[in-house]
Amino acid sequence: MRRKAVFAVGKKKKNGGTAAALRTGRRPFQHMALARLRELKKIVPDAQDAADVDVLLRRTADYICALELKLTVLRRVSAIYGV
User: Fold this and answer.
1) Are 34 and 53 contacting, i.e. CB atoms less than 8 angstroms apart?
2) How far apart are CA 12 and CA 53, in angstroms?
3) Alpha-carbon span 12 to 54, nearest angstrom
4) What is the DSSP letter of 8?
5) Residues 43-82: pLDDT tens digits?
6) What residue segments make up the domains of the chain, in order of their start?
């Protein structure tokens, strides 16, 4: 079962909406995405200077890998010392 698109690109609304009306329909989604990207920049180190979204997501993926590696090391060290 396919989900319906949140907004239509390049299509007019059935009630004869204008381009401005189409833009207002996109604003909540864009605002939400930009807010989440801002929060991600706060969490990921060295992401403050990432101006492009794909660079930010790549750094986020690298950071997740680094955190997983740290977790693995800590688990093995705790297993060795019986903590």
Assistant:
1) no
2) 29
3) 30
4) -
5) 998 888 878 899 999 999 999 999 999 999 999 999 999 8
6) 1-43, 45-83
